[in-house]
Amino acid sequence: MASPVQRTLILFKPDAVQRRLCGRLLTRFEEKGLRIVGMKLMQITQDLAARHYEAHKERPFYPGLVKFMTSAPVMALVLEGPHAVDVCRKLMGATFGFKAEPGTIRGDFGVSNQYNLIHGSDSPEAAEREVKLFFPEAKELLEYQTADAGLHACD
Questions:
Q1: Could you read off the pLDDT of 6-38 as tens digits, one per residue?
Q2: C-alpha closest to that of 42 among 75, 9, 13
Q3: Residue 138: helix, strand or coil by DSSP?
Q4: Do residues 105 and 58 make contact, with C-beta atoms less than 8 angstroms apart?
Q5: pLDDT over 70 for what percent of the chain?
Q6: CATH number, domain at 113?
Q7: CA 139 to CA 17: how far, in whole Å?
């Protein structure tokens, strides 16, 4: 039985971009077998940050989070593959760097609880909503086959 192919949103946060880690982080996802179907370097606006983090609006960390996410560019990605949401969450590691296992992105590169390098959708439903926020035009997401399609997969 084939595994469900999913799409998920990944954001390399301002600290990842500023530390010039985008290439190294992207390599982790590609080596796992995930396909890039959308990618752009962008500056998140106040409005987009507010919509993206609306679930946290009443939390004490919300103003600082919005300020941080709008402070510098981010790399926005849509990745696709079998169980993409769960696969990406495992690759990222625990939210707080000191809790993240070595071998995960946050475990290997995280230096702070507040600046944790990366965001990934936490469910297929969240992924669908978040992808539409960051890639509102359908033409921004591509359909294509990789040269090694069928040789390996991440399931």
A1: 999 999 999 999 999 999 999 999 999 999 999
A2: 75
A3: helix
A4: no
A5: 95
A6: 3.30.70.141
A7: 25
Q: Which residue has the tokens 């919005």?
A: 66
What are the tokens at 146?
Answer: 């990789």
108 within some domain: yes
pTM for this entry: 0.92
- Give a three-class secondary structure readout of 26-43: HHHHHHHCCEEEEEEEEC
3-state secondary structure of 110: coil
Mean pLDDT of the chain: 93
| pLDDT band for position 4 (cuts 50, 70, 90) | confident
Helix (H, G, I), strand (E, B) or coil at 79: strand
pLDDT at position 36: 98
pLDDT value of residue 99 = 87
Please indicate, yes or no, if residue 155 is contained in any of the structural domains: no
Residue 13 lies in a domain: yes
Provide the domain limits for residue 62.
5-138
Which positions are catalytic?
119
Tokens 């909503």, located at residue: 129
Element (H, E) at 80: strand 74-82
Please name the residue that has the structure tokens 């690759």: 91
